[in-house]
Amino acid sequence: MPQPVIDIRGTSRTYGEGPPALADVNLTVWPGESVAVLGPSGSGKSTLLNLIAGLDRPSAGSVTVDGLRVDRLGEAGSAKYRRARIGMVFQFFNLLDDLTVTDNVLLPARLAGVPRAEARRRAAELLAHLGIDRHTAAYPGTLSGGERQRVAVARALMNRPALLLADEPTGALDTASGDDVRELLTGLNADGQTILLVTHDLRLAEACASRTIELVDGRIVRDTATAAVAR
Ligand code: ADP
Known about the structure:
Elements (H helix, E strand, L loop, with lengths): L5 E8 L8 E8 L4 E5 L6 H8 L7 E6 L2 E2 L5 H11 E4 L11 H11 L4 H14 L15 H13 L5 E5 L7 H16 L4 E4 L3 H7 L2 E6 L2 E7 L6
Helix pairs in contact: 3-4, 3-5, 5-6, 6-7
The protein binds adenosine-5'-diphosphate (ADP).
């Protein structure tokens, strides 16, 4: 049996005296799955994402990603974990505007100490694969939203992450660019990339997710295989 990419057991997160942001959640995600996390505002989606990314620690329970106990990492270990094992994509791209497209994509490899020539090869390959090789020398500010998100996805994939985490990746895009990013994520998952995405975009969940999880008040109230993925 393969090792799960995400294994969350009995995990809770409480803030002060308030009700738990996450309450005794169990979640196992297997290699090759694409999981959409849905739920109303305040239901715990960001809390879950932050725990998986090692940006926050649970109040109880464990968070294991790619075999690593993320909840036990210190600050340096957690930063290294994010560089080496996960890729993150955000609603507003989070690209560095004073670096070219290529340099943005190279950044994670530089931080991880990948030899320059190898990193350049990988970046060129990714940019070509994601259809943005025409813009390698451009600055992000000159690109459309959809193109910027493609660059952000290329950057996220640079270090071959076990898991791609996406937080509302179509949230800031117009319909056409949203379709473009939906297609891109669906294609990556078809190629075997494990993805967990938080979204309000039901079309994205339908197009790209093989499984949908719904959170309400910090609990998983629904966990369904969405076999409708057209592949
Ligand atoms: P979602 O991403 O689904 O909108 P969140 O995970 O952001 O939900 O929030 C879940 C709950 O935890 C909410 O009730 C929110 O107010 C609370 N919460 C989140 N972050 C904090 C914080 N830093 N301090 C106190 N309460 C928080």
